[in-house]
Design brief:
The protein contains 9 helices and 11 strands. By secondary structure, the chain is an alpha+beta fold. It folds into 2 domains: 127 residues; 127 residues, Trna Endonuclease, Chain: A, domain 1.
């Protein structure tokens, strides 16, 4: 049995049209009601309004970022890093514009159908930034770690990507962060652990500098300790001094840092 393409097309168009509603507002804009939903079930907001150059502007009126703010700090999207790159790529690939928190596209009246689908797809993808894949989350972990460290330690005492001075092959054994404490306390070497591979590397680096006779306190920050293989966790925690199981344990990091700050120097105020 052969498909009747024309009849199928007519049926499909009719079905799709039934899923889209247009509802005028008093401000001369029109709500475009579509079946598109955010992953949590809430509807996407799309408004259409005429523009002076002719045609229409389809906009989310800032609703997407507002909705996203319930599950993450949307200011992170504007900062240089992986989240910002992903956001800009979604905007560019779908031919959209972003201004003052609003995501929009200007189109001719005849092109409204395609634009609605394009905008709806993009808004769903942008919302998914808060539900990044495991690999992409790993790539943003270091951004989140850096922010967390600066929340609990004075900037002047933080050295990122630290290379031990005056030691041979030191570049082969880098330290994610060195933090210095007042009144002669041991320097703290902090390592972020988003994967099994990084757990192995951190174990090797800590063991190397112990063997070299370097005096320091090691601090391990797991992205999610439960996702790291038990043998790797065991080896790392055996050589490490302090650790927290995830970046969600910021309060534990602050408490342990306060114990290490032997002079009672004030830490930054909690956000």
């Amino acid at each position: 049995m052969e498909l009747d393409i024309n009849k199928l097309k007519e049926t499909l168009c009719t079905s799709l049209c039934k899923e889209v509603g247009l509802y005028p507002r008093q401000d001369n804009r029109v709500i475009v009601d579509t079946p598109f939903r955010f992953p949590d079930g809430d509807s996407l907001l799309i408004l259409a309004e005429p523009i002076s150059t002719g045609g229409l502007r389809l906009s989310d009126c800032g609703h997407t970022l507002m909705h996203l703010s319930y599950s993450m700090d949307v200011d992170d999207i504007a900062k240089p890093g992986n989240r910002n790159e992903l956001f800009q790529r979604i905007i560019n690939e779908n031919g959209l514009s972003f201004e003052s928190g609003q995501i929009f596209v200007d189109v001719s009246t005849d092109d409204i159908g395609r634009a609605v689908f394009r905008l709806g797809q993009a808004l769903s993808q942008i919302f998914d930034i808060s539900f990044l894949s495991r690999n992409r989350v790993s790539s943003t972990f270091y951004e989140d770690l850096d922010r967390a460290i600066h929340m609990v330690a004075p900037n002047a005492r933080i050295q990122k990507n630290y290379i031990v001075e005056n030691r041979g092959s030191a570049e082969d054994y880098p330290v994610d962060y060195r933090l210095d404490f007042p009144q002669g306390g041991l320097p703290l070497f902090l390592f972020g652990i988003p994967s099994n591979e990084k757990a192995k590397l951190a174990t090797l680096v800590i063991q190397h500098w112990r063997t070299e006779g370097l005096q320091f306190t090691s601090f391990i920050v797991f992205q999610d300790q439960l996702r790291i293989g038990r043998p790797d966790v065991a080896r790392l925690t055996n050589v490490g001094d302090e650790s927290i199981s995830s970046l969600g344990a910021i309060a534990d990091m602050r408490r342990k840092f306060e114990r290490l700050y032997r002079s009672g120097e004030a830490l930054p105020a909690e956000a």
